[in-house]
Amino acid sequence: MAFKIATIKGIPIYIHMTFLLVFLLFAFMFDITRFPYGFAGVEPAMLRYIFSVAAAFLFFVTLLIHELCHSILATSYGIKIQGITLFFFGGVSMMENPKDEKMVEPSKELKIALAGPLSSIILGLLFLGLNYAAFGVFYGAPLISGSIMIGSWDILYRDISVLLFLVGALNLILGIFNILPVYPMDGGRVLRAWLAKRYSFQKATEIAVQTGKIFSVVMAIVGIFFNLWLALLAVFLYISAAEEGKAVKTTFMLENVTVGDIMTKNVITVDESMKVSDFVNFVFQNKHPGYPVTHNGVVTGTITVDDIKRINEAERYALTVKDAMKTDVISVAPETPALDAFEKMNVNFVGRLVVLDAGKNLAGILSRTDLMTAINLRSSLTDTSNLGPDYSKKNKPADEKDKDQDKNKS
Questions:
Q1: Domain chopping of the chain, boundaries
Q2: Catalytic residue among 67, 206, 243, 244
Q3: Which residue positions in the chain have pLDDT lower than 70?
Q4: Among residues 374, 404, 66, 402, which one has the least CA distance to residue 249?
Q5: Is 288 annotated as a binding residue?
Q6: Does the active-site annotation cover 400?
Q7: Residue 389, pLDDT score
């Protein structure tokens, strides 16, 4: 699940919910790690917390710059970016029509992929250079006298130097590490571009994702014995590879599919005059958690089981559905692309959308189940020709291959 935080250069920026967990984890690691790799021992404790969170936040900002460099260069090639979903050590750039040949052209893919690592390396050198200009050191922080009282300006300067060093060093590591040909790192995107010359974009992504997962597992095992930071990074890489693989599969499988193609047309509705107590029984009978609410055939809202949880049992006999329903109906049209509807669900944190036709009449309802069913069906029924230009020939029976050869001879 992701939520939107901003729009930069026309590109919507989203943060995945797992980012909050990883953000706090990194802040915690900075808090317990000693100088010069963290702020353990800094007093008062509030100052230590502030510097730990600031280090995590600054790294998030530089990560955003990293992803924007990818996306802005992609838009210069005419590739539309539908949005960026950020994790802590990477991000997902949702591109329009990922099967388009221009999306996987090696020369363009190479430039787009390297734009991010290059920006991270430049930012890393910039922060380390700033540390040197201000404190005379690239690595760590300036040495200070142990006799200086805790909380003095000299101690504060040392902590600022550690902050600059951490952000600079992390960006250098991010930039260099991303060049490795392992998905979802940028080097892995170059690998995917090369694979896409032999397979479809989706198949190339699947191979690159599996390669990334295997690498992450090996790195996690090594990290457990030698460096817990490495193990933490490996866990994130595995999650990122899996999430981006799902995102690409979703985009691919919902391409050219509209809401009208997959929505449920026989919709059960409730009248806004229904008593809440009767609605409870209605839910048990129909076994759905949510319903459109109508008045004289016109949709006036939606109501779910969650909406009535806050109403005590005594009041349920006096209140109507109109009193408990949500009036801000989140709707789509039948001709809306299914992928757009999927993104609308994620942005609004809802599990279903009301489908209204041009006259605002109820045409159907689209649930996550409808979307997942469409994705799974299209995945299982995908033509083998999508797996690559030579796949069909390699897997034809011998007699069919002979027929093709005879045709070529003739």
A1: 2-253, 259-371
A2: 67
A3: 1-2, 87-106, 142-155, 382-410
A4: 374
A5: no
A6: no
A7: 37
